[in-house]
Amino acid sequence: MPESNAPQLTATAPARQYGELILYAVLFFALVASVFVLNIILSTQSQKDATQIFCATRQQRAWQKARKSLENAQIAVAAGAPVAAALAEFNGAIKNFDAVTRALHTGGTLTLDATTITLERIEDARAAHIIDTLYAIWSKGREPLLQLATGAALRDKTINDSLAAIGSAAEFVVGNDDAVFNGTQEFIVKLGQLSTERTARLQTLQVVSLVSSILVFLFMVFRVSFSLRKQDGIISERTEEIIAQRDTIAQEKVFIEKLLSDLKETQTQLIQSEKMASLGQMVAGLAHEVNTPLGFVKNNIQVTERNHAIISDALDAYMKLGDTIESGELEHLEKVLLNAKAAAEKIRTFDLISKTKKILASSVVGAERIQELISNLKNFSRLDETSVKNADINAGIDSALMIAENVIKQKADVVKHYAPSVTAECYPAQLNQVFLNLLTNAAQAIPDGTRGTITITTRLDNTNVILNFADTGKGIAPENLKKIFEPFFTTKPIGQGTGLGLSIVYKIIERHQGSIEVKSDVGKGTEFEIRIPRKLSANAQLQSRAALA
Amino acid sequence: MKELSQVLLVDDEPMILESLSNLLEFDYKVHSATDGYIALELLKKHPIKVIMSDQRMPKMFGHELLREAKKISPNTIRVLLTGYSDLESIMQSVNAGEIFRYINKPWNPDNIMNVFKLGVQLHDKLVGLTAQHKAMQAAAPAAVSVAPSPQRNIHIEVEEKNGNVLFVGYKSAEVTEFVRQLERRYEVTSVASIDEAFKEVAKRPVSVIVSDVRFDEIDGVEFLNTIKTEYPHVVTVILTEVMDASLAIRSINELNVFKYLVKPVQKQEFEQVINDATTKSSAYKNAPQTNLHLSSQQLSPSSRAAEDSALRLKLRAAQAALLKGKS
Predict the structure, then answer these.
(1) Cβ distance A401 to A442 under 8 Å?
(2) Contact assessment for residue B26 and residue B34, using Cβ atoms and an 8 Å cutoff
(3) Best A291, A296, A410 residue to mutate vs chain B (most B CBs within 10 Å)
(4) What is the CATH architecture of B5-127?
(5) Is residue A412 over pLDDT 50?
(6) Residue A531, strand partner residues
(7) What are the C-alpha distances in Å from A15 to residues A217, A223, A234, A367, A434?
């Protein structure tokens, strides 16, 4: 059953294709997003680096400023000039240096030029090493320098003491100046390097993401266009299929139409053949019924001819006897007399005169019987009446009984319960056909070799004629009972029934706006009850006329 | 005055009885009955030579009555009067050997007179044969077995081959089974055409012909009648596809056909028919007076195949050709 599987296949294929597309799209967007994320990371990192470098630069400057101010303070002390200004300057610078160095070393918040800067500890090991070294150097001289810077070390001291304190501080500063300066320099350079490195790395990642997103995009485009092309192919294939199917359907339509018209023709032929069959049955019945009187009438004519010859011979002989007596030639008298007696002997022996009269009378009866049969047949077929007529239903049933006589005679006794003057407006010939079909069926339902009864009842109510045909035949099985009015349904052997008889009965009753019901007991018999209105409506007349035409 | 032969008419229509009685009363003492039971009673009481019954009667069908009549009075010649629509039931009686003649309604009075005349003659002949047979059996039962009697001849034939069976008008495939089956006991030949059949009957002593009745342009019954006129001992069996009552009636009336078989036929049944037919043929050969058909032909020459018919001429030609070949 490939036809039924095909729709399922086409249903799963797009789902897979869409799944694939969604995957590509997600991948593409993830890659693009990663580029943005990287960019953000890059910019924040750059900001951090810039801050760090800024701080490192300030650190270096603070150191330089501290050294210079310390030198100034030394000179001032030596010159005996006030040192406070120089020391204040030194104090600011060294504090700045200390704050920056500590922040760079351990991370933290510091305020530079009224700006608060948050720093994290340097992560990179190389840079961290430099700052750690710097911090270690600074840690050694930090306390005295910071004391000096606050001015506490110089308070209440002599110039010499102050000079010594500044000198030792200067000694430390100068002694470590190179190391600190180089360290800060190196740190700045390292930070710059690290920043560049990181930027380069992130940029590489960005490039990779971009390139791969482009690749994914291109692949997606390729896949989509490929599947679209495939889809196109399938669609055009489908279209061709549909066109082909449409053509087939068109052909089949023509074929079915032809079949239908053939069927109609066959149906017409069958109805015709059913008509011919009932005509044949009619003819057979009539021929049989006519042959009997015809047989004896024909025979009687021959017998009458023979008797006539005998009687006329006898008459001749007696006339000759009379002539002989008249003429007086008496010598032949005895011979003539004997002749005449001999000629008349058969007439007397066989009582030919009265018998001839009798068979002539019976011939008349025979001829009348034939006439009756013919007029009955005419009654039955009503070929001269195609219009609605108020017809005597009892007479119609009787004419059908006559036609079916040769079928019924052997099988059944007919019992009639006729209500007087049962008439209805109807198409008499059509109803007679109904009666014939029902009576024939009734007779055929009685098994061969047995004798049954067919009971016919007619009665009237206010609006309807009610006819009942009951037989004592073999009955109809319940499963067949529903089907008996269907065309072509028959339980008779092939060739013995067209299966149209009862369907025609049904049609005719329908045309008369009547109803037909059937009751049957298997083994006991079947009963048909027909109701037709006593007055036929104008509508039904029209329909029926159309059906006749 | 010589005593009249007694005949019996049966019909449920009294006017027919009256009419036929009038026709026959000069020559016969006519009894009449309106149904089968009355008829059987009359048959038991009177020496009836010919009984004629209508087929379609209430109470008892004509062919049923004649079947009973055969049991009560076997030598009575039985005639069936049939109507237009009796053909179906007639077929049942064709093969039972119950009926001498079928007469269709409306009948021809002259034909009725002829059938009764012939019937009475045949009846007398049959009675004579029966009496003779009884006398022979009573007088010398031993002599019969010693003398080369008919029975003896049949016996000899049994020992060789039971006789010649000729199939006419069948395709070889149709009858192969039958031919193979019969070959064990009979000489069997199968020919397709009537011409070949004439050659065969001229050449060899055919005892049974199994034939179809439907040939192109040629009437099968007439063909078989031609052969039977020339070779009265040949027993005919019709084996055909069509159940045709009018053909069956003709083959009884004109041919006294032994059996009218409608295909398909059971093998056993068929062999039995052929057995009976060959036995009958031998009986005809040895005692032609038992051949009812031959007797009726002799009594009433009109039923013989016409001397100058085309078929008769063909048969004569076949016989002549064979003689020439031999000399």
Answers:
(1) no
(2) no
(3) A296
(4) 3-Layer(aba) Sandwich (3.40)
(5) yes
(6) A466, A515
(7) 20, 15, 16, 94, 67
Q: What are the DSSP calls for A442-509, one per residue?
A: HHHHSPTT--EEEEEEEEE-SSEEEEEEEE-S----HHHHTTTTSTT---SPTTT--S-HHHHHHHHH
Question: A190 vs A128, A132, A134, A237, CA distance in Å?
Answer: 10, 13, 14, 68
pLDDT given at position B191? 87
- 8 Å CB contact between B201 and B234: yes
CA distance B133 to A333: 55
Report how far residue A403's alpha carbon sits from residue A379's, in angstroms, rounded to the nearest whole number: 11
Instruction: Tell me the domain boundaries of chain B.
Output: 5-127, 147-326
Strand order in the sheet with B206-211: B187-191, B164-168, B206-211, B235-240, B259-262
Q: Do A296 and B18 touch (CB under 8 A)?
A: yes
Look at residues A88, A98, A87 and name the one whose alpha carbon lies nearest to residue A62.
A98
Q: What angle do CA B178, B274, B119 make, to 5 degrees?
A: 145
Tell whether the model's pLDDT for residue A5 goes beyond 70: no
Return the residue in A289, A292, A313, A365 with the most chain B beta carbons within 10 A, the one to mutate for interface testing: A292
Task: Work out the widest C-alpha separation in chain B, in whole angstroms.
Answer: 65
B319, two tokens:
């016989």
Please provide residue B291's backbone torsions phi and psi, each rounded to the nearest 5 degrees. Answer: -80, 100
Kindly report whether the global pTM for this prediction surpasses the value 0.90: no
- B contacts of A284 (beta carbons < 8 Å): 84-85
Nearest CA to A543 out of A427, A384, A391 is that of: A427
Reply yes or no on whether the pLDDT at B156 is more than 60. Answer: no
Measured CA to CA, the distance from residue A202 to residue A38 in angstroms comes to 6
In the CATH hierarchy, which top-level class contains the domain B147-326?
Answer: alpha beta
Domains of chain A in start order, with CATH, are 15-209 (1.20.120.1730), 382-549 (3.30.565.10)
Q: What is the mean pLDDT of chain A?
A: 82
Q: Would you state the pLDDT for residue A497?
A: 59
Q: A197 - beta bridge partners?
A: none
Backbone angles phi, psi at B287, to 5 degrees: -140, 80
Distances from the Cα of A303 to the Cα of A360, B29, B32, angstroms: 10, 17, 18
CB contact under 8 A, A355 and B22: yes
Beta strands in chain B (DSSP E): 5-10, 28-33, 48-54, 77-82, 101-104, 164-168, 187-191, 206-211, 235-240, 259-262
- Among A295, A531, A221, A394, smallest CA distance to B111 is for A295
Of A296, A355, A410, the CB nearest to B16: A296
Helix (H) or strand (E) run with residue A61 in it: helix A2-79
- Same-fold call for B5-127 versus B147-326: yes
| Contact of A501 with A437, CB cutoff 8 Å | yes
Is residue B54 classed as helix, strand or coil in its secondary structure? Answer: strand
For residue B287, give the nearest of B153, B163, B160, B186 by alpha carbon. Answer: B153
Average pLDDT over residues B96-118: 87
Query: What integer pLDDT is reported at residue A467 of this predicted model?
Result: 94
Q: What one-character-per-residue DSSP string does A1-44 give?
A: -HHHHHHHHHHHHHHHHHHHHHHHHHHHHHHHHHHHHHHHHHHH
Alpha carbons B211 and B222: distance in angstroms, whole number? 12
Rounded CA separation B327/B215 (Å): 33
In the block, tokens 């108020």 appear at A390
Whether residues A300 and B22 touch (CB distance < 8 A) is answered with yes
For residue A478, with 0-12 CB atoms within 10 Å meaning exposed, 13-18 middle and 19 or more buried, which class applies? exposed
What backbone torsions phi and psi does residue B263 show, to the nearest 5 degrees? -65, 150
d(CA A485, CA A504): 8
Q: Higher confidence at residue A11 or residue A101? A: A101
Confidence label for A545 from pLDDT (cuts 50, 70 and 90): low
Nearest to A409 among B18, B58, B106 (CB): B58
